[in-house]
């Protein structure tokens, strides 16, 4: 006998890296031991990413590398992977996105999306189960059966977080939004050190959250060129100006 | 394809009609319906029929008052 379709997804929430991590599950494993084990495993991946990459922890690999206590060659392969993604984004954005600025290393702009995508692996292993996993408003989801409804993702209004400017129906894929506030820090154009002018937020929809998150942040850093840059990359997304003018790219 | 919606005082004052791609773009492979659907007026969070929120201000600090928190509380396992 197949389980009936749950009317509402089951949800889980925990906080790490100063961000709420929200999981929604629907299908066969939503509240049983398999679901809870997969959630625990997903969260452990995020906690480990924080331990390695956090710039807020003096004992993280990134902090020690930044202080010169570690050599890049002594770092775990995950660090090399994240730095390589950051380097590709720097090149592709003509330097607007950069994990290094003023001689300091801060790969936060890469780590969140990359870590959440890795954290989704145990959820992907749950048979007959759909998921949507979000960390601080950047998320990745899966829908197994073509007849099932897509996940409906609301895009926050950058001028009023109680409101939405758009809804994105996503079956399988990722959605990331970048704006002025990013973990309490400010996204800047790395070439000038200044926040980009004229933008409220940039949302990118892509197959993986690794790409969506980096591209949303890079496009936001590019300011007035955001929509043009995303179009040239063949991305789907949404650019919201600080005047409320909204442009769909895709 | 590019749609430009002009919004003033939370109301759409101009809409450039989209021309949808004919189905061979790479985003079609992800999700045939992944294009953002702009809301006619910005939706009040309480009435939103959504599963998750994507936004730049979703942090632990503001979580309790957030729409994401309301969605989570409604379905906690």
UniProtKB/TrEMBL annotation, chain A:
Its EC number is 2.7.1.180. It is an enzyme of class 2 (transferase). It catalyses: L-threonyl-[protein] + FAD = FMN-L-threonyl-[protein] + AMP + H(+). Gene3D superfamilies: ApbE-like domains. SUPFAM superfamilies: ApbE-like. Keywords: FAD, Flavoprotein, Magnesium, Metal-binding, Transferase. GO terms for molecular function: metal ion binding; transferase activity. Its cofactor is Mg(2+). The keyword Transport does not apply. The keyword Flavoprotein applies. This is FAD:protein FMN transferase. It comes from Pseudonocardia halophobica.
UniProtKB/TrEMBL annotation, chain B:
InterPro entries: FMN-bd (IPR007329). GO terms for cellular component: membrane. It comes from the Bacteria. Residues 1-74 form the FMN-binding domain. GO terms for molecular function: FMN binding. Gene3D superfamilies: 3.90.1010.20. This is FMN-binding domain-containing protein.
